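EI: anyone free to look at a 177-residue chain?
SC: sure, send it
EI:
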Amino acid sequence: MTEPIEETYFNWLYSKLVQIEGTNTPSNNYYTLIRDLHSTEFVWLLSGDDNRMEDGLDVRKEFVLQTKLKQDPPWMDIPCSVLEMFIAFSRRASFETELSSREWLWIFLQNLGLSDLTDATLGVTELTNEILNDFVWRTYDSDGYGGMFPLTKPENDQRKVEIYYQFCEWLIENDIF
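SC: here you go
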């Protein structure tokens, strides 16, 4: 019996973040965190962040092409998830730096305070949902803490700066090119 296409897609996304081999113990497994990222809608509030959403939706198209599906899955029309946006943006970040997209994914998670939330963490879903709620609705600190790109010396309120430009400021502040 084959797994449902939704599960195949999720496993494909999961593999973008985590090496699947050797992750049998809860302390080495991020299944719950990644599932929560995928079940949280990425909502764009600022002009320009709609591009992040569109890039995330393109990840689905890539999956459909790679798997040579004969028809689009029914979930092609649902909103972009935070996980899909992260994967797409990690590729853009990798293109502009010497870091791999997987490294960028973990930087995003670390900056958000999510990187230590393994399946062994008590209340991982509640913690993840709280952090993602602040991120998605931009209720994090004005210096970007609680977002993807916290800054020590921001020039602007980061809640009012689109994600791409937050990324650019973060690169400069952290001397990453």
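EI: The radius of gyration is 16 Å.
SC: 👍
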